[in-house]
Write a structure and sequence with these properties.
Elements: H1 2-10, H2 14-26, H3 29-47, H4 53-77, H5 79-84, H6 100-119, H7 123-138, H8 149-169, H9 174-197, H10 199-205, H11 210-214, H12 216-240, H13 245-264, H14 276-279, H15 282-297
Length: 298
């Protein structure tokens, strides 16, 4: 009897238990792990080491909130295309696993979490939070208006290290802007590649993309150029801040892996886009984080 009473007291509604993993899956944790290490790099460089547990926790909560907001908005805005695009029709909303009102609820909660976490960091972080929230929601509409939508997505991820920098220092320094540029060109370049996979769909459905505008071959060259810019920017960050040898070792390994990724996809063969190497591209950013930590600690 007592055991039954205790079990009832701590049990959760069945719908919440079922939906929670779906909510987590819908925000694509691996993509989140791509941006988060760069944010932590910005945090550590701003503090020239460990900023303290309080700052780390609130930056992490803020990142989680704004990431959930952005991905939820993206799924809601693109629900109609996702339902008919072969690459995306297995996502949660097209399959009926998440409803529009549930996604809106996720957006509302994540916005509140993001704003509160920003308020716990400093005044500038809180003042800029509405602009950041608006951007990560509105960038999803870019593909309806311009073939440059990939650059909008790149900056949606690129603001992470600058935001973390602001969370530590209460100001935006040029070094942080350079790091954000590196992330924006890195992530935007990969979005161009994924746009190549949607080339036929985009032509048929009428949405914009760089591959649709200029062709797949030209788009892949744009990606290579963007990733070259990202590599140069990351090198510039290391030189500007006079980071140790470990940072440059990590940079060399990460850029070698990035260069290898660019050889996997060709205009005549996009099959490697389904390669686990692309799915777990976040490993590269995590590797950069590890070597940045070593550079600061040793």
């Amino acid at each position: 009897m007592a055991r039954t009473a205790v079990h009832s007291a701590v049990s959760f509604p069945r719908t919440l238990v079922v939906k929670t993993p779906i909510y987590l899956a819908s925000i694509r944790i691996w993509e989140s792990l791509y941006a988060a290490p760069f944010a932590y790099i910005g945090m550590l460089l701003a503090a020239d080491g460990w900023p303290g547990w309080g700052t780390f926790i609130w930056i992490t909560i803020a990142l989680s909130g704004v990431r959930t907001l952005g991905m939820s908005a993206n799924r809601l805005v693109h629900a109609k295309e996702d339902a008919v695009n072969p690459r995306t029709m297995n996502r949660h909303m097209p399959r009926g696993l998440l409803k529009s009102n549930e996604v809106l609820g996720m957006m509302a909660v994540s916005t509140g979490v993001f704003f509160y976490a920003a308020s716990q960091l400093n005044g500038l972080a809180l003042a800029l939070a509405p602009a950041a929230a608006a951007y990560v929601v509105l960038y999803s509409y870019a593909k309806y208006f311009t073939w440059g939508c990939h650059f909008f997505l790149g900056w949606a991820l690129g603001i992470a290290p600058s935001a973390a920098w602001i969370g530590v220092t209460g100001r935006l320094d040029p070094e942080a802007a350079l790091l954000s540029f590196a992330v924006a060109t890195w992530a935007g370049g990969f979005d161009v590649v994924y746009g190549c996979a949607d080339y036929e769909f985009d032509k048929q459905y009428g949405v914009h993309s760089l591959p649709k505008k200029f062709g797949i071959s030209a788009a892949l060259w744009v990606t290579k150029f963007m990733h070259l810019c990202a590599a140069a920017a990351l090198l510039g960050v290391g030189l500007w801040l006079d980071l140790g040898v470990y940072y440059f070792i990590g940079w060399a390994i990460a850029i070698s892996l990035l260069a290898f990724e660019n050889t996997l996809v060709k205009a005549s063969n996009l099959s490697k886009l389904s390669s686990p190497f692309f799915k777990y591209n976040s490993v590269i950013s995590m590797l950069l984080l590890v070597f940045t930590i070593l550079a600061l600690a040793l």
